[in-house]
């Protein structure tokens, strides 16, 4: 069975190219795929088969297929009708591109339908189910230029997918309730009680939506915007049968549930009547058939949902009959449209005499639809009436509705024949129809003939379908053309006679142009969702950054505050400080922070924030964290330099914000967050009772990391992945900074040469650059760089490391830049910042990968002892190399920032020329 | 472990000051708010570990050392804050370049939807008639 699906998938892929290459005849070749499926089914008559391929065993998903009577019937229909429709397409109007598109999509659809009816795993079934929705969307919107087609396609997709989602929930519930998604296992012990009822109702929602049963009926008539062959296949024979199929599949297990009976039989019969009435008002032949289809689908769902043995046989026979006659009639409409250019029964007259062959085929099909002997439809109707003529009150009520429905069916069958082929007084007869060739006639004639042959072959059909009804309880019926003078025969005669009367009464009625109720509901629902989305988005997304942040912070305060107030274990003891000096640093931090908030000048605010940072680094020293103190102090220094580079472009003072209310609101929120954070800090630090994991780090860092500075070993070994992530962030940030300043890639490449504003320090102070300053910085530059390398290499055993070392080197460069501008910077570091960043990342990653290639874990440290003559033994840990990468990335980041933020704003394109000249003038020969 | 009151107070003040600045419109102030929040978070983490001697093996007995793990985390955080500072500064720079100031404006797309909501109007979609919207 999997082979069939794979063949369809492959053919679907090559079909468009094939049809483009050799034209419409290619469709005959393409049709071989579904024809093969039909032949395969014919060869498997009366047999069952299973096939299972593991798919995702961890999730219990498998490609499980099984063939039984029900799926056998549908494979036959999907394959047979599919092949005929594809052959019909070869002669239907449409250019080669359209045919190619249809060929691929129709074969893909046929394969998907096969998968749907053969799937044993319900989740697999669901996958195919949704695929048919998607393919139907694509096929309905065959002409995307037409708004009607787009809307119809979207409506079909939305309605069927909505049902499909409900169905998915139902399937998951079934699986959760029983532990399996395989229907063959589920059917043995379906979940009972409320759980099972809810699950099956959800699944039914999907089935009813797919088969256009009320209240989901509106999408199917709208889908008639699709080309007629597509309608014949998807909306008569195949896709809409998926819902019917699912009802038939589940009926043996769930027919006893009351909700099931109400939904299938109740909604089905209501659909039968209402859609039948609607069909009698149509003047578009295709819409007439569409409403007829909705009506018939209602009947099928009702019959198969009833779940008795007799009804099941009648239902399957009707499924077969319906597929044959309805696709034949749709293809007839296509031929009529092709011949005359219209489908409006008010304009067609006298066509029966002009196209006798088509008329005969259509008459046979319509007679089957009406349930007239000796056709297959008659066999089904007779069995149906017999199945419900039990005398039970519920059955009798259903029987009355069915006879009424059958009467309407006869009515619109006659309306169709009269409309398409009859001669109408007062209408100019069609004189010279563009006669359809044998290619267009073959499919409807064959399908109609099959309906006639089926009617004459009651016994073989019954024996082929029998295993399915035998799964159900109740008295069986037999298919036969002659049961004797019985009640069913009387009802058939009644329906035929009544139908003729209905036809005569309603013949001249046409639909009012009013929009139908179902379409109105759909339209309103869609508008409602759109409106809701606008209101909801408008209410929650006001577009203001402070607003969004405020919401997030309020949530923080409310949740953290509630937890702190209600359930937090507040510590009973605390200490004021470890040393009183902490309080001194603390006062400095608080003063600087409050000053930064109140500052009116940008530079003052930055300097105060920096002061807070320096005071924090003092706190680090008092805590016993010299590495932190060193890094923090260096970062503050670099931060102030960066700020100065940017602030020279911004106004010295912040613009005044006159809204006092908003200021008060911000302060209230800030204080609340502060209180919540302090409360969390109090509770969490007091709540630490477990032994810190870092107790073991002291030994580990010496024995495995090869260093005695534990913090550094944590960074480059124990938690080296953190550091790896961090340096990646640095590279990304540097790239971001450069791309914000240099918008064009060409400018980015030139960034090493981009002119700086005179000299940076000179620009800031307004004075000419100082020669003394330049000389001094050049004198101390190499010393600082040397010191930075010392910090890098000794960092494994003493305070320092890649970050601190890199920052020191970067500050050396910064000093050169401040003293002599870009020229001095280029002289000190004649490389592109991107190269430094890339090299650093390469070294860091290389160390990690190298350890892996040498058989260790990624980023594992090896300790190497090298004997160097004269100097003695060198004790090196490979993680130092990783630290070199970190060092280079920090240097690259600062270099990048100096060159980006230190550059003139990117000129607009018109200034490009003068810019280039200026650049040439300033060209440095470093 | 007993909480250190100085740290607790500092966390509170730094968070409060940071949030007040974060809710401003000027990108420069937002940036300073981020920096202060970073300091606050660092002190919070610092307070989660024991204070003591320098965590370098051989200088002080292991049991007298300060807890090294929070320190490694804070070190990472400090450097990331530097990167964030650089990026926000570049944003302010670019903003000044494009719009002449460094104020954070309301999101244009969001405001458009707010206007639609106030008018009780519909978004114009592809499938609607032009006059319906």
Offer a concise description of the structure.
Chain A is an all-alpha fold and 926 residues long.
What does this structure look like?
The complex is a heterodimer of chains A (926) and B (133). Chain A has 926 residues and is mainly alpha-helical. Chain A folds into four domains: 1-120; 121-521, no CATH class; 574-656, Helix Hairpins (Orthogonal Bundle); 705-926, no CATH class. In chain A, a hairpin with a 3-residue loop joins strand 3 (863-868) and strand 4 (872-877). In chain A, helix 3 packs parallel to helix 14 (309-340), helix 23 (545-566) packs parallel to helix 27 (660-686) and helix 24 runs antiparallel to helix 25 (602-623). The longest helix of chain A is centred in the first third of the chain and has 32 residues, at 147-178. Chain A is elongated, with a radius of gyration of 41 Å. Chain B is an all-alpha fold. Chain B has one domain: Helix Hairpins (Orthogonal Bundle). Chain B has four helices and no strands. Chain B has helices at residues 5-22, 27-46, 68-99, 108-118. The interface between A and B is large, with 126 and 101 residues.
Topology:
The complex is a heterodimer of chains A (926) and B (133).
Chain A: H1 2-22, H2 26-43, E1 49-56, E2 61-67, H3 69-89, H4 96-118, H5 122-140, H6 147-178, H7 183-186, H8 193-210, H9 219-222, H10 228-237, H11 241-254, H12 258-279, H13 285-306, H14 309-340, H15 351-354, H16 356-370, H17 376-388, H18 393-421, H19 438-456, H20 458-465, H21 487-506, H22 517-540, H23 545-566, H24 580-598, H25 602-623, H26 626-647, H27 660-686, H28 697-703, H29 710-718, H30 720-741, H31 745-749, H32 760-765, H33 771-794, H34 802-828, H35 833-853, E3 863-868, E4 872-877, H36 879-901, H37 912-921
Antiparallel strand pairs in A: 1-2, 3-4
Helix pairs in contact in A: 1-2, 1-4, 2-3, 2-4, 3-4, 3-10, 3-14, 3-19, 4-5, 5-6, 6-8, 8-11, 8-12, 10-14, 11-13, 12-13, 12-18, 13-14, 13-18, 14-16, 14-17, 14-19, 16-18, 16-19, 17-19, 17-21, 18-21, 23-27, 24-25, 25-26, 26-34, 26-36, 28-29, 29-30, 30-35, 30-36, 33-34, 34-36, 35-36
Chain B: H1 5-22, H2 27-46, H3 68-99, H4 108-118
Helix pairs in contact in B: 1-2, 2-3
């Amino acid at each position: 069975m999997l082979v069939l699906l794979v063949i369809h998938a492959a053919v679907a892929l090559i079909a468009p190219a094939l049809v483009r290459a050799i034209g419409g005849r290619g469709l005959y070749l393409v049709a071989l795929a579904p024809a093969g499926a039909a032949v395969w089914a014919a060869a498997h008559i009366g047999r069952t088969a299973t096939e299972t391929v593991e798919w995702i065993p961890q999730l219990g998903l498998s490609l499980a297929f099984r063939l039984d009577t029900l799926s056998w019937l549908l494979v036959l229909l999907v394959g047979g009708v599919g092949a005929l429709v594809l052959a019909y397409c070869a002669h239907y109007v449409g250019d080669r591109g359209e045919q190619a598109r249809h060929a691929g999509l129709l074969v893909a659809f046929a394969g998907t339908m096969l998968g749907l009816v053969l799937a044993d795993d319900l989740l697999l079934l669901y996958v195919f189910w949704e695929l048919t929705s998607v393919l139907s969307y694509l096929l309905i919107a065959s002409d995307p230029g037409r708004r009607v087609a787009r809307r119809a396609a979207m409506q079909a997709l939305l309605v069927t997918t909505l049902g499909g989602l409900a169905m998915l929930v139902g399937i998951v519930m079934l699986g959760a309730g029983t532990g399996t998604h395989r229907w063959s296992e589920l059917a043995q012990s379906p979940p009972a009680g409320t759980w099972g009822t809810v699950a099956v109702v959800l699944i039914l929602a999907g089935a009813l939506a797919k088969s256009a049963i009320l209240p989901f009926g509106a999408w199917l008539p709208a889908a008639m915007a699709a080309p007629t062959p597509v309608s014949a296949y998807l909306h008569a024979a195949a896709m809409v049968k998926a819902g019917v199929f699912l009802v038939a599949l589940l009926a043996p297990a769930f027919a006893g549930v009351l909700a099931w009976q109400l939904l299938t039989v109740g909604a089905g019969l209501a659909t039968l009547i209402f859609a039948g009435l609607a069909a009698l008002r149509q003047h578009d032949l295709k819409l007439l058939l569409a409403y007829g289809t909705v009506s018939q689908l209602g009947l099928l769902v009702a019959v198969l949902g009833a779940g008795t043995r007799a009804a099941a046989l009648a239902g399957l026979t009707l499924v077969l009959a319906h597929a044959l006659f309805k696709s034949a009639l749709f293809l007839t409409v296509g031929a009529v449209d092709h011949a005359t250019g219209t489908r409006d029964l008010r304009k067609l007259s006298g066509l029966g005499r002009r196209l006798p062959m088509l008329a005969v085929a259509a008459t046979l099909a319509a007679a089957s639809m009406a349930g007239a002997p000796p056709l297959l439809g008659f066999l089904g109707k007779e069995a149906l009436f017999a199945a419900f003529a039990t005398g039970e009150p519920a059955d009798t009520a259903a029987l009355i509705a069915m006879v009424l429905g059958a009467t309407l069916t006869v009515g619109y069958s006659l309306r169709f024949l009269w409309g398409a082929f009859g001669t109408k007084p007062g209408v100019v007869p069609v004189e010279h129809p563009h006669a359809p060739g044998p290619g267009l006639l073959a499919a409807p004639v064959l399908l109609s003939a099959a309906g006639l042959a089926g009617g004459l072959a009651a016994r073989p059909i019954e024996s082929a379908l029998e295993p399915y009804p035998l799964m159900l309880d109740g008295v069986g019926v037999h298919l036969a053309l002659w049961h004797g003078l019985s009640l069913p025969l009387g009802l058939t005669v009644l329906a035929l006679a009544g139908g003729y009367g209905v036809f005569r009464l309603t013949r001249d009625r046409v639909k009012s142009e009013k929009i139908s109720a179902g379409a109105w509901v759909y339209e309103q629902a869609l508008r409602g969702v759109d409106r809701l989305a606008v209101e909801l988005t408008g209410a929650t997304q006001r577009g203001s950054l402070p607003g969004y942040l405020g919401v997030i912070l309020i949530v923080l305060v409310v949740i953290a505050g509630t937890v702190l107030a209600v359930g937090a274990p507040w510590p009973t003891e605390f200490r004021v400080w470890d040393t009183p000096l902490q309080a001194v640093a603390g006062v400095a931090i608080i003063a600087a922070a409050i000053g930064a908030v109140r500052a009116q000048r940008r530079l003052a605010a930055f300097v105060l924030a920096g002061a807070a940072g320096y005071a924090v680094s003092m706190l680090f020293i008092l805590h016993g964290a010299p590495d932190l103190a060193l890094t923090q102090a260096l970062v503050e220094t670099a931060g102030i330099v960066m700020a100065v580079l940017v602030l020279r472009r911004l106004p010295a003072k912040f613009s005044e914000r006159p809204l006092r209310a908003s200021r008060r609101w911000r302060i209230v929120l800030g204080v609340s967050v502060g209180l919540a954070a302090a409360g969390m800090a109090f509770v969490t630090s007091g709540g630490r009772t477990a032994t810190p994991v870092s107790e073991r780090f002291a030994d580990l860092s010496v024995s495995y990391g090869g260093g005695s500075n534990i913090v550094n070993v944590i960074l480059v070994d124990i938690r080296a992945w953190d550091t790896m992530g961090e340096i990646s962030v640095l590279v990304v940030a540097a790239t971001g900074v450069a791309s914000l300043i240099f918008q064009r890639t060409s400018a980015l490449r030139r960034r090493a040469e981009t002119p700086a504003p005179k000299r940076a320090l000179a620009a800031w102070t307004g004075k000419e650059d100082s020669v003394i300053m330049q000389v001094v910085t050049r004198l101390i530059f190499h010393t600082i760089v040397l010191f930075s390398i010392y910090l890098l290499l000794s960092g494994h055993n003493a305070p320092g490391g890649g970050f601190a070392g890199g920052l020191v080197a970067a500050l050396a460069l910064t000093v050169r830049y401040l003293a002599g501008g870009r020229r001095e910077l280029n002289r000190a570091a004649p490389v592109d910042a991107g190269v430094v960043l890339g090299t650093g990342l390469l070294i860091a990653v290389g160390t990690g990968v190298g350890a892996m290639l040498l058989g260790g874990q990624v980023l594992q440290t090896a300790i190497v002892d090298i004997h160097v003559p004269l100097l003695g033994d060198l004790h090196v840990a490979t993680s130092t190399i990783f630290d070199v990468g970190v060092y280079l990335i920090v240097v690259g980041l600062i270099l990048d920032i100096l060159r980006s933020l230190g550059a003139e704003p990117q000129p607009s394109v018109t200034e490009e020329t003068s810019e280039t000249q200026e650049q040439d003038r300033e060209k440095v020969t470093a | 472990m007993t909480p250190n009151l100085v740290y607790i107070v500092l966390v509170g003040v730094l968070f409060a000051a940071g949030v007040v600045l974060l809710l401003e419109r000027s990108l420069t102030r937002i940036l300073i708010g981020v920096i202060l929040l970073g300091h606050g978070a660092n002190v919070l983490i610092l307070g989660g570990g024991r204070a003591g001697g320098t965590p370098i093996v051989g200088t002080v007995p292991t049991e007298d050392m300060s807890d090294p793990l929070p320190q490694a985390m804070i070190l990472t955080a400090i450097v990331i804050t530097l990167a964030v500072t650089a990026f926000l500064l570049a944003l302010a720079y670019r903003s000044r370049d494009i719009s002449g100031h460094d104020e954070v404006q309301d999101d244009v797309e969001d405001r458009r939807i707010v206007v639609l909501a106030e008018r009780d109007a519909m978004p114009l979609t592809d499938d609607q008639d032009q006059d319906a919207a």
